[in-house]
């Protein structure tokens, strides 16, 4: 009876969201992405997956509608697991299967069969709960409605619309709801401003050279959702003067167009809205849904070229700071792991290894880095593009709390006690669910303040090897398969031989190619001793990709 009711509910709902003719969807690096106008069926079906995920885990799940760094016409959908991380990868084949089910009947059969196989109780007394959010894209509102209808096509499932949020806010909320607090956006803002204030107050006086640490920060909001959120947070921030640009207001420009972290990191140019008046000032850039962060400073007399501080250098700053605090606390042993991808600059990896840190590589995609970081007491992960965070294990957190409260009662004000309190503030400031540009930005600022470091000092940590990234649009990007954390092409095999031959021509040459999981392109990364060599290596490999797989090269 309940089975019949469930079946007819699924059929009635699915019939309103037919699969567009001739299209296939794939759960990629960060969920489904495509042109926003063709995604209604995919988002509707993702709503079903999220509701099933909630039933399976007996917890609140999340669903966010965003295409992050992609252009404004695109959109996408990703699902958050109860701990706030990306959906368990073992469910991706099911998500792919139902996203491509040709008609309502086959869709319903797939859902019922999957529920049976996974022992998910359908139609029973158990309820499911899914938190929803979207970014500012024009197609977002209609897609949100599709998600709601997908969720309510599972008996007992409830969708809770949390509004227009950054992706990391939604992940953070899901995590907190499952820890028993029905946290809202104002709790998120309050947690950031409170822990930032604590960390600022713990700065050692002798390190504090206020002349070195410029108090002003200009932030590029990518004309996305992050700028407006930052405007709210900054109302409660003391000790930092933040000027937010590209907030998406009328006249400021289009989402991610000529602005945003992806543009800044790849083009190494200042975003629109920045000019020579900003010379000498520390600047930061978020991406469209505020899950990526890079810093930069304009270079004088260069027509808006910038000195870039990417995810690798943010990672290095976090690693140094955490290591320093731990070195004062011998009673708090911790295994640190640093996770990077093949895009990490070779100089950054050498620098981190020279700090004595264990550095591990995974394929591109936060879901892979996050999973690896969970294996450590403290797992620090960052992609060079600015996507990353720091994770603390449960055991480490309870040890830290214990040590902190003992030191606070026995040695208040001592360097040891302050080191423990600084670590506590870091654990509260940095988002434990996913990479978060806003919480990352405030952690960077608090660390620079604690260390009394200028932007220049941070830049000088190490010198990046010159690099170049290109993308090539090909007929079928899935024709490329890679191995060894995407550093080698295994298919077509002739391509890797050509890459090896080209790379061998350059001092410190390194090059890899991989299919993007968010755009319909193949990406090329090259590194070498000089910028000309890196450019020429990237170009020649792009030509090979082009001649083997077809089409045009884009910077
Ligand atoms: C997403 C992922 C990132 C990944 C990026 C580019 O970022 O979350 O982990 O680095 O896509 O991926 P690809 O090279 O496969 O296109 P975002 O900011 O778009 O969500």
Automatic annotation (TrEMBL):
Residues where Mg(2+) binds: 68, 287, 289, 291
EC number: 5.4.2.3
Known pathway: Nucleotide-sugar biosynthesis; UDP-N-acetyl-alpha-D-glucosamine biosynthesis; N-acetyl-alpha-D-glucosamine 1-phosphate from alpha-D-glucosamine 6-phosphate (route I): step 2/2
GO molecular function: magnesium ion binding; phosphoacetylglucosamine mutase activity
Keywords for the protein's UniProt record, in alphabetical order: Isomerase, Magnesium, Metal-binding, Phosphoprotein
Segments forming domain Phosphoacetylglucosamine mutase AMG1: 182-294, 310-453
Signal peptide range in chain numbering: none
Reactions it catalyzes: N-acetyl-alpha-D-glucosamine 1-phosphate = N-acetyl-D-glucosamine 6-phosphate
Protein name, as recorded: Phosphoacetylglucosamine mutase
Cofactor descriptive note: Binds 1 Mg(2+) ion per subunit.
tRNA-binding listed as a keyword: no
Role played: Interconverts GlcNAc-6-P and GlcNAc-1-P.
Organism: Carex littledalei
GO biological process: carbohydrate metabolic process; UDP-N-acetylglucosamine biosynthetic process
């Amino acid at each position: 009876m309940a089975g019949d009711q469930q079946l007819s509910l699924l059929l009635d709902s699915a019939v309103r969201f037919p699969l567009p003719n001739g299209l296939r969807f794939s759960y990629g690096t960060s969920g489904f992405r495509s042109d926003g106008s063709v995604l209604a069926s995919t988002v509707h079906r993702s709503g079903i997956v999220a509701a099933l995920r909630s039933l399976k885990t007996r917890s609140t799940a999340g669903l966010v509608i965003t295409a992050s760094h992609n252009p404004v016409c695109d959109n996408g959908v990703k699902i958050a697991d109860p701990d706030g991380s990306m959906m368990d990868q073992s469910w991706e084949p099911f998500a792919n299967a139902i996203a491509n089910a040709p008609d309502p009947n086959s869709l319903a059969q797939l859902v019922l069969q999957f529920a049976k196989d996974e022992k998910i109780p359908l139609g029973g007394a158990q309820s499911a709960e899914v938190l929803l959010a979207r970014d500012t894209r024009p197609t977002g509102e209609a897609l949100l409605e599709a998600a709601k209808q997908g969720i309510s096509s599972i008996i007992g499932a409830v969708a809770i619309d949390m509004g227009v949020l950054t992706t990391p806010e939604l992940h953070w909320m899901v995590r907190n709801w499952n820890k028993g607090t029905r946290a809202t956006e104002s709790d998120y803002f309050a947690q950031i401003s409170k822990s930032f204030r604590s960390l600022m107050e713990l700065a050692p006086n002798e390190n504090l050279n206020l002349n070195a640490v410029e108090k002003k920060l200009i932030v590029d909001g990518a004309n996305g959702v992050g700028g407006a959120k930052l405007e709210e947070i900054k109302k409660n921030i003391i000790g930092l003067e933040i000027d937010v640009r590209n907030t998406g207001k009328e006249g400021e420009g289009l989402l991610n167009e000529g602005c945003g972290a992806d543009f800044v990191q790849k083009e190494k140019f200042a975003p629109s809205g920045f000019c020579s008046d900003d010379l000498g000032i520390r600047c930061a850039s978020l991406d469209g849904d505020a899950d990526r962060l890079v810093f930069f400073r304009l270079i004088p007399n260069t027509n808006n070229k910038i000195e870039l501080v990417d995810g690798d250098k943010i990672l290095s700053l976090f690693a140094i700071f955490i290591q320093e605090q731990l070195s004062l606390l011998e009673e708090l042993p911790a295994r640190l792991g640093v996770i990077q991808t093949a895009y990490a600059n070779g100089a950054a990896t050498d620098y981190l290894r020279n700090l004595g840190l264990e550095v591990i590589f995974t394929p591109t995609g936060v879901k892979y880095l996050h999973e690896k970081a969970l294996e450590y007491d403290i797992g620090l992960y960052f992609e060079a593009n600015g996507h990353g965070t720091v994770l603390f294990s449960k055991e480490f957190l309870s040890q830290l709390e214990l040590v902190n409260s003992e030191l606070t009662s026995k040695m208040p004000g001592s360097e040891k006690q302050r080191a423990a309190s600084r670590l506590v503030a870091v654990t509260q400031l940095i988002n434990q669910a996913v990479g978060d540009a806003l919480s990352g930005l405030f952690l960077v600022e608090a660390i620079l303040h604690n260390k009394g470091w200028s932007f220049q000092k941070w830049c000088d940590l190490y010198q990046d090897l010159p690099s170049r990234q290109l993308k090539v649009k090909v007929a079928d990007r899935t024709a490329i398969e890679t191995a060894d954390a995407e550093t080698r092409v295994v298919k077509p095999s002739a391509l890797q031989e050509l890459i090896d031959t080209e790379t061998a021509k350059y001092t410190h040459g390194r090059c890899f190619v991989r299919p993007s999981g968010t755009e319909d392109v193949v990406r090329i990364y090259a590194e070498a001793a000089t910028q000309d060599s890196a450019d020429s290596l990237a170009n020649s490999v792009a030509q090979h990709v082009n001649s083997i797989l077809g089409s045009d090269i884009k910077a």
